[in-house]
Amino acid sequence: MGSDAGSETKLAILFEEWVKGLFTIPLSLPWTKFGKALRCREELLKHIEEIVLRRQQQKDLGEDALGILLQARDEEGNSLPLDELKDQILLLLFAGQETLTLAIASFCLLISQHPNVLDRPRDEQKAFCEAPLTTENLKQMVYLDQVLKEVMRLIPPVGGGFREVIEDCEFGGYSIPIGWMIQYNIGNTHKDENLYPDHKSFDPERFSSENAVDKQKRFGYVPFGGGMRECLGKEFARLEMKIFAAMLLRGYQWELLPEQDLSLVAVPTPHPRDGLKVKFHRLVQQLTMNN
Ligand code: HEM
Q: What is the Cα gyration radius of the chain?
């Protein structure tokens, strides 16, 4: 939307309050999470409306998500109505922010809990430390890819999704009639012992080119969902995660602070009960970075 201030803004505070009430009992009272979320949503939409109207006045609509949505036309040349624009922006904020921050936090968590895994991705970064962080170089960081895939297998940021059954079918011996709404579950899929033996262990080797477990079975690895409604931001998210992880590995070491409850709460996205309290230290001999 053309705003860089992130968590410092009023928008971010409202956003957090809204997300807290997204998956709660739908009881709209002033003190319930749901009630607060509804009010925050109204305010969020008001803010977004101001941003949209301001942008519409500009000559150059821009190439960010808002600019692209403003310029979108259907087959008859109609643009998106204001309400639809606001909804789409809010959807993008939720889909892209909550999930990605969670994935990055899980990376910090799992690496601190498995220090034995740290050496390899750090060595990999050393091989690139004189090189700028280009897409080409990022593609070559294959071990980091494996680590991130395993992070999202073990703690998938999204629990699952809903699909409507469009023809009678059978699954696992059960008949499922047309018209039913079904839910696919990402976490349980990633625990399938046939694909992921010892599924509780954090083992990036599962995704090495020899094992490539994510290629073994269709829809066996689905952190971004699957089919027609697979995550729209998948590649963008993978890129962001990789840049963030590479920069952390190059410049910092980190440890979990004691006395925090790391058990995972599932809603709205899986996160440690106390948040994640981490102490970062700048590496004394920082790996050099050109970019
Ligand atoms: C690690 C980060 C992310 C994860 C794990 C993730 C996961 C998912 C999943 C599982 C779905 C499918 C839900 C369903 O089946 O109904 C989905 C949908 C979607 N995601 Fe993501 N997502 C991530 C990041 C992003 C980002 C960065 C964006 C945008 C900037 C984004 C935009 C969307 C959108 C628009 C949809 C709806 C697509 C549709 O219904 O056609 N996601 N995401």
A: 21
Chain centroid offset of residue 269 CA: 9
Query: What's the mean per-residue pLDDT of the chain?
Result: 92
The Å distance, Cα 201 to ligand 1 centre, comes to: 26
What ligand 1 atom has the least distance to the C-alpha of 240?
27
Under the banding of pLDDT at 50, 70 and 90, the label for residue 4 is confident
**Cβ 224 vs Cβ 100: under 8 Å:** no
- Using the predicted structure, report yes or no on whether residue 210 has a pLDDT greater than 70: yes
pTM above 0.85, yes or no: yes
Residue 130 has pLDDT above 70, yes or no: yes
Are the beta carbons of 257 and 281 closer than 8 angstroms?
no
Q: Which residues line ligand 1 (CB under 6 A)?
A: 91-92, 95-96, 99-100, 103, 157-158, 161, 223-225, 229, 231-233, 236-237
Q: Determine the distance separating the centroid of ligand 1 and the alpha carbon of 164, expressed in angstroms.
A: 18
Tell me the pLDDT tens digit for each residue of 58-107.
999 999 999 999 999 999 999 999 999 999 999 999 898 889 999 999 99
Tokens representing 85 are: 């624009």
Which amino acid is present at 14? L
Give the Cα separation of 133 and 129 in Å (integer). 9
DSSP state of 77: S
CB atoms within 10 A of CB 150: 24
Name the residue at shortest CA distance from atom 13 of ligand 1.
161
DSSP state of 176: E
| 272 Cα–ligand 1 center, Å | 21
Residue 23: per-residue pLDDT: 87
Report which of 160, 150, 146, 145 is spatially closest to residue 106, judged by C-alpha positions: 150
List, in order of start, the domains of the chain with CATH numbers. 81-282 (1.10.630.10)
What is the predicted pLDDT for the residue at 289?
A: 47
